[in-house]
Amino acid sequence: SGANLSGALSGTWLPNRLANGNLPAGQRAIDRWFNTAAFAIPSQYTFGNSGRDILRGPAFVNLNFGLMKSFPVPRLKEGTRLQLRAEASNIVNHPNFFLPNAAIGSSAVGTITSATASRAMQLGMMLSF
Description:
About 0% of the residues lie in helices and about 25% in strands. By secondary structure, the chain is an all-beta fold. The strands form 2 sheets. A 3-stranded antiparallel beta sheet has the order 3-4-5, with no helix packed on it. The protein has a two-stranded antiparallel ribbon with strand order 1-2.
């Protein structure tokens, strides 16, 4: 990421990979997701030797839940039903983080600064006739 100093008119300027950038699972945190010392900015007019998709981001865990109950309402019209609904997305409220900043040379490299939305719940009622 950053200014493309390779001299090419297209393509992606990748960093030089000096070592394996993965950290053990117990050492990963949102303020240091990968080993930033394992990457360096390549020299001007060269492409880096790093490949694409060599690091993994945080896992995505999501559990949605819905509870619905239908009741007959014969007073209105035969076949009329009232349905009560309760729905929740990300019911366990697990934080799902986005990918870390990959701009080698930036002060924020390797940090995660955003996450998906937290738990959302809604109640509803539907009358079908």
